Amino acid sequence: MEPVVASSIETGNQRFGQVAIVGRPNVGKSSLLNRLVGQKISITAPKPQTTRHRITGILSEPRGQVVFVDTPGIHQGGSDALNRQLNRTARSGFDGVDLVLFVVQSGRFNEEDAGVLELIRQSGLPTILLINKIDLLQDKTALFPFLAQMQTRFDFLALYPLSAHRDRGFGGLLDLIFKHLPSGEPMYDPDEVTTITTRFMAAEIIREKMARLLHDELPYKTTVLIERFSEEPDLTEIDAVIYVARDSQKGIVIGSGGKKLKDIGSLARHDLEQMLQTKVMLRLWVRVREDWADDERAVQSLGYQLPE
Ligand SMILES: Nc1nc2c(ncn2[C@@H]2O[C@H](COP(=O)(O)OP(=O)(O)OP(=O)(O)O)[C@@H](O)[C@H]2O)c(=O)[nH]1
């Protein structure tokens, strides 16, 4: 999508910038992005590695525009092509970025967090530390030693404890973000909330339903490819293929008598109808593509972009 110059936002003293949301898997990056932009953009699920792509959310206010970049969690230890791809995408998340939001879980800072912080250090970018999930702390005073510890690790612009689940307003955080963005005019139309396509959203929604319904049974190396996406005024027809790595995983996704696949399809169809505001005819297939995660070309052909 080509950026367009917004004409209906007042210009003059405005701020514009790209803000990367980074952190190890499962700390709540997607939840935060959704709350910051005010709608469901990036899928969230209890399973780590839900987000595999760089997704942007756009927030437009009279004082300026923020383009949020949601990067996949940075994984350590994995060495197959999929993991390499994920890591590259995460690193490329820093390209053109003005400010970093580094998300950690309150009271927890492990080696993986340290690895992400190292990438931030290498980027030299100004960074705000977001300490998420403070609702999980029984004793809120436990936050103080954690804050003190985090201050010794890096020269953060600010340390900001919050709960993506509980907090009502993110006004204070947005003030902080805007304050640290360069002056500039909006790049996108204020009506746009994301630069991702509906086609891509459809695949993400199907993947979210799989994660929800299959829980720990969800094969890690699963992906969804939209083969056909035909939009009529009242009806959208979508053909999607769920790729798994082995024959045995096919049975898990289909379920006994096809029940799992049917449930995944009907939950996904419900969300898609809401998003597209049309009736949706969704056809799902499950196909085996052996070892696709080990083959870089296969990974890319399934829609994982190499950074330019
Ligand atoms: N209790 C609590 N749970 C949260 C909070 N924020 C997010 N979660 C949960 O943490 C899990 C992971 O959230 P996501 O937003 O998908 O995390 P992520 O960092 O984007 O994860 P990846 O896509 O794997 O990188 C989900 O089960 C969320 O519901 C919070 O403030 N409090």
TrEMBL record:
Residues 70-73 are annotated as: G3. Residues 162-164 are annotated as: G5. It is a peripheral membrane protein. Residues 132-135 are annotated as: G4. Pfam families: KH_2, MMR_HSR1. CDD domains: Era, KH-II_Era. GO terms for cellular component: cytosol; plasma membrane. GO terms for biological process: ribosomal small subunit assembly. Residues 49-53 are annotated as: G2. Residues 15-183 form the Era-type G domain. GTP binds at residues 23-30, 70-74, 132-135. It is found in: Cytoplasm; Cell inner membrane. Gene3D superfamilies: 3.30.300.20, P-loop containing nucleotide triphosphate hydrolases. Residues 23-30 are annotated as: G1. Residues 206-290 form the KH type-2 domain. GO terms for molecular function: GTP binding; GTPase activity; ribosomal small subunit binding; small ribosomal subunit rRNA binding. An essential GTPase that binds both GDP and GTP, with rapid nucleotide exchange. Plays a role in 16S rRNA processing and 30S ribosomal subunit biogenesis and possibly also in cell cycle regulation and energy metabolism. NCBIfam families: era, PRK00089.1, small_GTP. This is GTPase Era. It comes from Halothiobacillus neapolitanus (strain ATCC 23641 / DSM 15147 / CIP 104769 / NCIMB 8539 / c2). The lineage of its organism: Bacteria, Pseudomonadati, Pseudomonadota, Gammaproteobacteria, Chromatiales.
